[in-house]
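Exercise 7. Given the encoded structure of a 286-residue chain, write a plausible sequence.
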């Protein structure tokens, strides 16, 4: 059995490589973007013909949330058209597609944990194009898992935790938004979830929510990062309006994970526990 991983050099792609190695999973094929551009149908056709994959994990995406407001067409090509290309080849080859999506498909105007069937209404170009990527998949295949996740961080690539650690060392004071509430997700845990889905051979296709357990604000998340890493920096809670950004983010994007926990029997770690794991790994790397 072979499992093709697209976007292998990104954050989640690298986490998948780490977890696959830890679990001794040898079926994953990590494809560099030069060989596996999801916007290149000829290249994809050759890869699918060569590997005849049982699963295709799409970690490739346009993820620069603010920049996407100015690069709408590029974001749409990667987040919608690239996904359509993969879904088409998956449909033709009987491959199960595992697509990663985002809490940013929601407007976040509520205050109750979001379930998979809740109304979507993205506030940003990134969120809209990720939603378009979700919607295009069933046009080509019914054999897919869409995993919506939120606030990914890890030892790899750029993310909020690494940004806070860097800024915490450089500055005396940091101002961080406290009126956006969600749940951080350690990308290593998400990678484990993806491999568990594959190992289970589950045919319960559809859309699922996955994050760590619990909820927090960016401010409380930053405070926890500094407390656990023993970084001495003053952290000031501010409102969203005091931190203007090009893209609008949802104010409340906590996702309910009952569906994935029930279907797969998953035990999901609390965000604070996983943050401790990540920070201790980062400390050994520095
Ligand atoms: N990061 C987060 O906080 C969250 C992410 N997600 C979703 O999780 C998934 C993984 O995110 P994450 O790993 O953090 O993202 P990254 O930005 O770290 O990785 C995305 C990867 O996709 C690559 N890529 C871009 N365009 C193409 C293309 N045309 N063909 C092949 N590869 C391409 C990028 O390469 P390059 O760098 O060269 O452009 C990059 O290596 C994405 O679907 C994202 O939308 C969901 C919720 C939260
Ligand atoms: C650096 C910084 C950010 N912030 C705020 C801005 C923003 O609301 C929040 C997070 O900022 P970032 O730019 O790190 O993260 P952002 O790009 O908004 O993260 C999102 O990425 C995409 C890909 C997703 O899919 C989402 O789930 C989410 O993880 O923190 C502060 O308040 N103070 C600061 O010093």
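Solution.
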């Amino acid at each position: 059995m072979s499992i093709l991983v697209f976007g292998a050099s990104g954050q989640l792609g690298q986490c998948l490589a780490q977890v696959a190695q830890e679990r001794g999973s040898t079926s994953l094929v990590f494809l560099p973007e030069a060989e596996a551009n999801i916007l290149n149908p000829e290249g994809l056709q050759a890869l699918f013909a060569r590997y005849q994959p049982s699963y295709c994990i799409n970690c490739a995406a346009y993820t620069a949330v603010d920049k996407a407001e100015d690069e709408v067409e590029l974001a749409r090509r990667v987040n919608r058209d690239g996904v359509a290309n993969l879904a088409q080849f998956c449909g033709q080859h009987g491959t199960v597609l595992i697509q990663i999506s985002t809490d940013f498909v929601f407007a976040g105007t509520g205050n109750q944990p979001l379930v998979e069937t809740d109304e979507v209404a993205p506030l940003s170009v990134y969120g809209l194009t990720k939603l378009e990527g979700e919607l295009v998949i069933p046009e080509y295949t019914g054999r897919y898992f869409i995993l919506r996740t939120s606030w990914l961080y890890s030892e790899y690539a750029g993310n909020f935790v690494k940004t806070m650690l860097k800024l915490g060392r450089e500055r005396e004071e940091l101002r961080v938004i406290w009126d956006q509430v969600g749940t951080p997700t350690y990308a290593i845990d998400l990678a484990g979830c993806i491999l568990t889905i594959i190992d289970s051979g589950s045919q319960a296709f559809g859309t699922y929510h996955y994050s760590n357990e619990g909820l927090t604000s960016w401010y409380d998340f930053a405070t926890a990062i500094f407390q656990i890493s023993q970084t001495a920096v003053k952290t000031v809670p501010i409102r969203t309006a005091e931190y203007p950004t090009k893209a609008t983010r949802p104010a409340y994007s906590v996702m309910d994970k009952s569906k994935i926990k029930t279907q797969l029997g998953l035990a999901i770690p609390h965000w604070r526990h996983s943050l401790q794991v990540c920070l201790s790994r980062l400390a050994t790397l520095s």
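Remark. The mean pLDDT is 97. Students should compare their own answers with the one above.
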